[in-house]
Amino acid sequence: MKLRILPLTLALAAVFTGSAQAQSLVQLYEAAKGYDAAFKAAQSQFQANLAKAEQAKALLRPTAGLGATLSESDFDNKTSSNIDAKYGTRNATLSASQPLFRPANTAGYQQGLKQVGLALAQLKAAEQDLIVRVSQAYFEVLTAEESLAFVKAQKAAVAEQLAAAKRNFEVGTSTITDTREAQARFDLVIAQEIAAENDLRVKKLALDQSVGTQNAQPVPLKSGANLGQAASADAETWVQQAVGQSPSIEQARIGLEVAQLETEKAKAGHMPTLDLTASYGGTRFRNGNQSSRIDNKTGTIGLSFNLPLYAGHATQNRIQETVALEEKARIDLEGAQRTVAQTTRTAYFGVQSGLGQVKALEAAEASSQSALDANKLGYQVGVRINIDVLNSQSQLFQTKRDLAKARYDVLLGQLKLRQAAGVLKKEDVESINTLLSK
Is the pLDDT of residue 321 over 70? Predict the structure, then answer.
């Protein structure tokens, strides 16, 4: 009897129900930008860093203040003269100061300017991380959906093989062994189906949690989509891009520059400071006679000079501390460069390996299909046994599952490669979006 297998397209259609409401990768990424806690926290940190950079400008700007005092005295002399008088003083002063030479303030101002670059690098890293996390959750759902579809198709095929084995046993053309082998394989596929359904449920919950959407339905990959266009150039070209554009390296580089400026601030502890100062104030004195008072107004302008002479070796020790921290920052930068280079090479070779696996699995799928067809024919003419057909079915559907996963792994690997190189952008998500079914 000829074995009929449920068409895979029908199984996939059963799993991908509600495709009219399916969301593309770009749509879910945009939803995640307004929902993801880590990314929103990074945005808030970005705004905080920009405000901190603006604060640094105050170190070189003038300062001004207004001060006032009021005092009253009651003089009561219990003598024969019986003097009872009140005295008061009122004072108000407006003062201002403009730094003229303060090396520590200058270094602090330059450190503040570095905060802008640091904020941009941190936000860029957070956005790239969001792209990868959403894409990974997106592709994991698609992989789980296709795995479930393949398991359902395999269950239908094994069910027909089981029915055929039972019919052949009833008419005496096969043994009970064929029936029991088919039943055992059917029970195994049922267990696999339960596991696949649970895996899909978990993956969907993870995607919903990432994007803040209930029952998100990703769009599957187009049939025959070209996966290799993002793996151009060679590993060292990607590494060179990473050295110049990686957010991790940029943050480490800024960290070294800030540490160097901190050393300059520490050395400024030995240097003099010079400020321009000005003040204007008035004082009113009132004695016991209400009609007797004196008003004084005073305006001053001058220079304030200070030269540190001895601070208990605090400045020398502070310099030693900052020099050591500067060396640490330099080592951190070197470490970041090595890590990024290694990560980039690993990601690059991972993409290349994934592309090779896809081609190999495509060939294996065709070979497995031919093997299944041959085993089914051999079973019908009596040169193959039932277990041969069942094994061929398992091999075919396992290959299909591996191929589906390999395709999505390649897409995710391409994003991770661009993330490692520091060049991942929304346009890359849109590029992958064109490979998905509409």
Answer: yes
- Give the domain CATH number at 345: 1.20.1600.10
Structural domain of 382: 8-62+112-270+314-433
Residue 101 resides in a domain: no
Round the CA-based radius of gyration of the chain to a whole number and report it.
39
Write out pLDDT tens, residues 6-50.
444 444 444 444 444 788 899 999 999 999 999 999 999 899 988
Select the more confidently predicted residue: 132 or 387.
Answer: 132
189 phi, psi to nearest 5 deg: -65, -35
Give the helix/strand (H/E) hosting 320: helix 314-381
C-alpha pair distances (Å), 89 with each of 209, 297, 301, 354: 68, 13, 24, 86
Q: What secondary structure, in 3-state letters, does 19-61 show? A: HHHCECHHHHHHHHHCCCHHHHHHHHHHHHHHHHHHHHHHHHC
The torsion region of residue 361 among left (phi > 0), alpha (psi -120 to 50) and beta comes to: alpha
Token pair of 199, please? 């895996």
